């Protein structure tokens, strides 16, 4: 008989009430002190130095560093190498019991001056000097929108596009005159991705952009075309709604529109200064081993717009043209050549781009019991499109999909018991969990919801060509309230040949079709895209989807094995037991 196993989501990993740590860190500590509970260090970097020294002396047991509650402001990412781990003993950086340390990549802002009409300003000398610029701003844990036109959920529509895709005629004239010199951006919803391109100038209904608007070569699906939704972001004249803001790169003046009765001096504003919190960087001959991060919070990272803009391909990947270089949004916590490491019971929020990921040479690592919310790009990644090397997240990946060196293939990593919400906050074509060109990844018991696009995406090869993608266990996840802005996706999306992959016991529902979804492709519970082959699809429940429960593109039911799935009826409906799909699977 069919049964659905409810997942246990975000179970925190609690330390003992009185842990014995090798070193302690506190916001009011001092790096000149001994790092004891009574005389803690002030920075994680200083604790890292002490840990390295202890490892060099020789470890006979696990080593623990405890961080007291409070904010730790990072002016550069923490970088951990082979010397920071140990082949036999765990090295753990953890929260002190019942306290919440927060590692922030941002800087608090103060000195607001009232400027009239509800606007307030603050001058930032580093911005004026050209040493700092930011595109994200947060207040009391809320991501604030940049001044835009139109406001809110209103969007413009494309009427005409020039042959070189840099001159876009919209359905409505833009207020405020020429947008030249203001760092304005044209944001366009493509079918399953978005584009962000710097505006060079404007006149009436026409906007001229620095680069083509869209990923060229895949037809109108990823490129500017008539009726595509769009808006203009980051213009001073468009700062007219509570919470909107504009940063003048030349003067260093930040302008904020307050709500009636609001005084910005009573709120905590934070602007990010760095793009990453942690990089764990091993080598093929010397991986980082047994490094753990537990119970910490990570907040505020930046994401600068690339010179050519952000021209979305899919799932946080972007580029300029087909057959040219592919880029991936950077990760706030990135692992390369790491083994048996883990991020456990942590909270990650307010990022400019992606949150956590495992790249080349990562084996048997885990993200478990974490909460991710308000993430600019993808939530958690194992692998990505583009072989490359350790630097592929910085934009050096080629269009070639699979890893050139078999030793680089991420293997046996796990993403379990996490709550992942509101990813794609900046670039809406991003997903909650992503897995590509990896072997034996386990994605289980996660809750993924409130997504502009797909919830979980596995595979990234548009054919049945064999790759290293195989053996993914995608089971007992709860994915819902997805596809809120874009089209041609679903709660789960698959692509390419994946021998031994299992989709089992997933609860998938509330898959939307927004008014902005461009093109005819529907949104589904599971979308098996081109080449999807070699999977077992067993015991999944799918209901309340704007399109069919399951959809196929250049594949079909005959390429998959089906068992005891329930499509179209919620578990609490009396008709539920009778709604199982036939063993042969749904209609192609």
How would you describe this structure to a colleague?
The chain has 588 residues and is mainly beta. The protein has 3 domains: 9-105 and 274-450, Pectate Lyase C-like (3 Solenoid); 109-269, no CATH class; 452-588, no CATH class. The protein is built from 2 helices and 53 strands. It has a 12-stranded parallel beta sheet with strand order 1-2-5-24-31-34-37-40-43-46-49-52, with helices on one face. The protein has an 11-stranded parallel beta sheet with strand order 3-6-25-32-35-38-41-44-47-50-53, with no helix packed on it. A 10-stranded parallel beta sheet has the order 4-22-29-33-36-39-42-45-48-51. The chain starts with 22 loop residues before the first strand and ends in a 21-residue tail after the last strand.
Question: Would you spell out the secondary-structure blueprint of this structure?
Answer:
Blueprint: E1 23-25, H1 44-57, E2 63-67, E3 70-73, E4 78-80, E5 91-95, E6 101-104, E7 106-109, E8 113-116, E9 119-123, H2 125-128, E10 138-139, E11 142-143, E12 148-149, E13 156-161, E14 167-170, E15 185-189, E16 194-203, E17 206-209, E18 229-233, E19 245-247, E20 253-257, E21 269-272, E22 278-281, E23 288-289, E24 291-294, E25 297-299, E26 310-314, E27 317-319, E28 326-328, E29 331-336, E30 338-339, E31 342-344, E32 347-349, E33 354-358, E34 366-368, E35 371-373, E36 380-382, E37 414-416, E38 419-421, E39 433-435, E40 442-444, E41 447-449, E42 456-458, E43 473-475, E44 478-482, E45 490-494, E46 497-504, E47 507-511, E48 524-528, E49 533-538, E50 541-545, E51 550-552, E52 561-563, E53 566-567
Parallel strand pairs: 1-2, 2-5, 3-6, 4-22, 5-24, 6-25, 22-29, 23-30, 24-31, 25-32, 29-33, 31-34, 32-35, 33-36, 34-37, 35-38, 36-39, 37-40, 38-41, 39-42, 40-43, 41-44, 42-45, 43-46, 44-47, 45-48, 46-49, 47-50, 48-51, 49-52, 50-53
Antiparallel strand pairs: 7-21, 8-9, 9-20, 10-11, 10-21, 12-18, 13-14, 13-18, 14-17, 15-16, 15-18, 16-17, 16-26, 19-20, 26-27, 27-28
């Amino acid at each position: 008989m069919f049964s659905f196993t409810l997942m246990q989501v975000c179970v925190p990993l609690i330390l003992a009430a009185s842990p014995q740590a090798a070193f302690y860190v506190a916001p009011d500590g001092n790096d000149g002190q001994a790092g004891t509970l009574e005389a803690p260090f002030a920075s994680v970097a200083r604790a890292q130095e002490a840990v390295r020294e202890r490892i060099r002396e020789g470890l006979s047991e696990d080593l623990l560093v405890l961080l007291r509650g409070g904010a730790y402001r990072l002016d550069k990412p923490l970088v951990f190498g082979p010397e920071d781990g140990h082949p036999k003993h765990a090295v753990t950086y953890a929260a002190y019991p019942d306290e919440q340390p927060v590692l922030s990549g941002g800087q608090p802002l103060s000195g607001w001056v009232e400027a009239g009409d509800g606007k307030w300003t603050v001058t930032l000398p580093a911005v004026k000097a050209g040493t700092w610029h930011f595109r994200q701003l947060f207040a009391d844990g809320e991501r604030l929108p940049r001044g835009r036109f139109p406001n809110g959920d209103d969007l413009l529509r494309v009427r005409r596009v020039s042959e070189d895709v840099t001159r876009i005629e919209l359905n409505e004239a833009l207020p405020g005159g020429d947008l030249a010199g203001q760092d304005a951006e044209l944001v366009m919803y493509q079918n399953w991705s978005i584009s962000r391109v710097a505006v060079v100038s404007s006149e009436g209904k026409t906007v001229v952009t620095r680069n083509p608007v869209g990923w060229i070569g895949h037809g109108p699906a990823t490129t500017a075309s008539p009726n595509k939704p769009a808006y203009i972001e980051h213009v001073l004249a468009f700062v007219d709604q509570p919470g909107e803001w504009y940063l003048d790169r030349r003067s260093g003046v930040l302008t904020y529109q307050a709500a009636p009765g609001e005084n910005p001096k009573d709120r905590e504003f934070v602007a990010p200064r760095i793009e990453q919190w942690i990089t764990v960087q091993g080598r093929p001959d010397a991986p980082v081993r047994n490094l753990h991060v537990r119970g910490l919070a990570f907040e505020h990272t930046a994401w600068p717009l690339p010179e050519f803009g952000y021209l979305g391909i899919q799932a946080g990947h972007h580029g300029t043209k087909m057959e040219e270089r592919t880029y991936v949004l950077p990760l706030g916590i990135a692992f390369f050549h790491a083994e048996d490491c883990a991020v456990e019971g942590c909270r990650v929020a307010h990022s400019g781009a992606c949150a956590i990921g495992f790249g080349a040479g990562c084996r048997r690592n885990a993200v478990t019991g974490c909460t991710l919310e308000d993430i600019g790009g993808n939530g958690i990644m194992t692998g990505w499109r583009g072989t490359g090397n350790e630097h592929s997240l910085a934009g050096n990946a080629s269009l070639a999909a699979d890893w050139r060196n078999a030793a680089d293939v991420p293997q046996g990593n796990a993403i379990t018991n996490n709550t992942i919400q509101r990813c794609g906050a900046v670039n809406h074509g991003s997903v909650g969990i992503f897995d590509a060109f990896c072997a034996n990844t386990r994605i289980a018991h996660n809750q993924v919801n409130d997504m502009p696009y797909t919830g979980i995406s596995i595979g990234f090869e548009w054919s049945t060509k064999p790759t290293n993608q195989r053996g993914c266990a995608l089971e007992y996840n709860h994915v819902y309230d997805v596809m809120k802005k874009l089209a041609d996706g679903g709660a789960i999306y698959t692509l390419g040949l994946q021998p031994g992959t299992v989709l089992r016991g997933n609860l998938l529902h509330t898959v939307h079709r927004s008014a902005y979804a461009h093109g005819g492709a529907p949104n589904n519970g599971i979308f098996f895209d081109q080449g999807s082959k070699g999977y077992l699809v067993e015991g999944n429940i799918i209901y309340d989807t704007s399109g069919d429960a399951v959809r196929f593109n250049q594949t079909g039911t005959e390429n998959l094995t089906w068992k005891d799935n329930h499509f179209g009826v919620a578990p609490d409906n009396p008709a539920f037991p009778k709604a199982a799909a036939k063993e042969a699977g749904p209609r192609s």
